[in-house]
Amino acid sequence: MSALNELYQEVILDHNKRPRNFRTIEPASHHAEGHNPLCGDRLALYVQVTGDTIEDVAFQGSGCAISKASASLMTDAVKGQTVEAANALFQRFHSMVTTPPDQPVENMGKLSVLAGVREFPVRVKCASLCWHT
Ligand code: ZN
């Protein structure tokens, strides 16, 4: 395993162990439940949208390390963004994790640690569950 892959793994393990924004928002303007039956990941997502802006976002749930780390990274990435910017980020993320492993992908900063799931098609669902939710 390359040093870069090890670093990526470390970021994922860290977000799995200490997920950011792992709580509820009561009341939240938006709430949704997501389920990935392939892996058993379950996720409850809470979003507080004020005007056009995602003022706060949080999640709860249980699942594999990839699904939890992805949700944690996503909440960090979309908090404070407009809904439109968050949707655009989802499009970019989706394209990153569904690009064939032998093709280059754009650098998405911290979210790039999840680009490795491209090599494991089953894991793509784990990484994108929070975004779909
Ligand atoms: Zn999973």
Can you count the helices? 4
Low-confidence stretches: none
Give the names of the bound compounds.
zinc ion
Count all strands and give the number.
3
What fraction, in percent, of the residue positions are helical?
A: 40-55%
Which percent band covers the strand fraction? 15-25%
Report the major sheet. 3 strands, antiparallel
**What's the gyration radius in Å?**
14 Å
Strand order of the largest sheet: 1-2-3
User: Element order, helices and strands?
Assistant: HEEEHHH
What value does the average pLDDT take? 94
Distance between termini? 32 Å
The secondary structure category is alpha+beta
- Overall, the morphology is globular
Written description of the protein model:
This protein has 133 residues and is of the alpha+beta class. The protein is 43% helix and 20% strand. The protein contains 4 helices and 3 strands; from the N terminus they run αβββααα. Strands 1-2-3 form a 3-stranded antiparallel sheet. It starts with a helix and ends with a helix. 32% of the residues are buried. The mean pLDDT is 94. Bound molecules: zinc ion. Zinc ion (ZN) binds next to helix 2.
Short description:
With 133 residues, the protein is an alpha+beta fold. The protein has helices at 3-17, 65-78, 83-98, 121-132, and strands spanning 30-36, 41-50, 53-62.
List the helices and strands and how they pair.
Layout: H1 3-17, E1 30-36, E2 41-50, E3 53-62, H2 65-78, H3 83-98, H4 121-132
Antiparallel strand pairs: 1-2, 2-3
Helix pairs in contact: 1-2, 2-4, 3-4
The structure holds zinc ion.
Zinc ion (ZN) binds at residues 36, 39, 41, 63-64, 66-67, 126.
